Amino acid sequence: MQKLIEGLHHFQSTVFGNQRELFERLAQGQSPETLFITCADSRIDPCLLTNSQPGELFILRNAGNLVPPYGAVRGGEAASIEFAVAGLGVKDVVVCGHSHCGAMKGLLAPPPADEFPALTEWLSHAEATKRIMRDKYCEHDATQKLNIAIQENVLAQLENLRTHPAVASALSQGRLRLHGWVYKIETGEVFGYDPDARQFILLTQRPAAAQTLRRVEI
Ligand SMILES: [Zn+2]
Q: Ligand 1: distance of its center to the CA of 91 in Å?
């Protein structure tokens, strides 16, 4: 905790002072253009990754970057999505998974339900991912399975996102775009799903030179 307190001192004495105008403006309201849904994993920093400033990303985080289908739970996810899309009018929604995701490891090799009852129930929102992995990728080794599950889960959660009325409405009006990303911790690379190529493609390269995250089509 001492490190956090020292961090607060640094923020107030250095960071805040340098950006006082920004924070004063943000106190008047927010108008982020992107809803960024990602895992709670401590190794992901959405603002660092995207070079975003305070006020630019509306961030929703949980274990496994899951989006429960609308009506499945009365949780904070649905409320946050509704507010971001219908209230703030974000133009883009990003669902960002990441390499070495503990939640996806737990999906493929479930922990004891009596020890992790809440986690077990939560991961049921990735049941489609689990089923796809079982039915389509059973021949792959454990490392490949984890990487594929991370990608398939991003796509499954994008489908869940479409069940939210505010999202469905904004999509039908053409004022919202959905994006599936995967962040590779060890290289800093971010791959985006290309529906035409049916693959995740490195976002920072030109399409002609694009690298795919893996060769398996999904
Ligand atoms: Zn994770």
A: 25
- The pLDDT value recorded for residue 50 is 96
pLDDT, position 215: 47
Residue 57 belongs to a domain = yes
* SS3 assignment, position 174: coil
- Residue 138 marked as a ligand binder: no
CB hemisphere CA count around 135 (13 angstroms): 8
Residue spans of the chain under pLDDT 50: 215
What CATH number is associated with residue 156? Answer: 3.40.1050.10
In a domain, 8, yes or no: no
| Size (the chain), residues | 218
* Ligand 1: centre distance to CA 65 (Å): 7
9: annotated binding-site residue? Answer: no
Residue 21 falls inside a structural domain: no
**What's the 19 CA to ligand 1 centre distance in angstroms?**
31
User: Which residues place a Cβ less than 5 A from the ion ligand 1?
Assistant: 39, 41, 101, 103
Tokens of 15: 């960071």
> Does 25 fall in a domain?
no
For position 74, what pLDDT does the model report? Answer: 80
Any binding-site annotation on 41?
yes
CA distances from 138 to 83, 135, 145, 146 (A): 39, 7, 8, 11
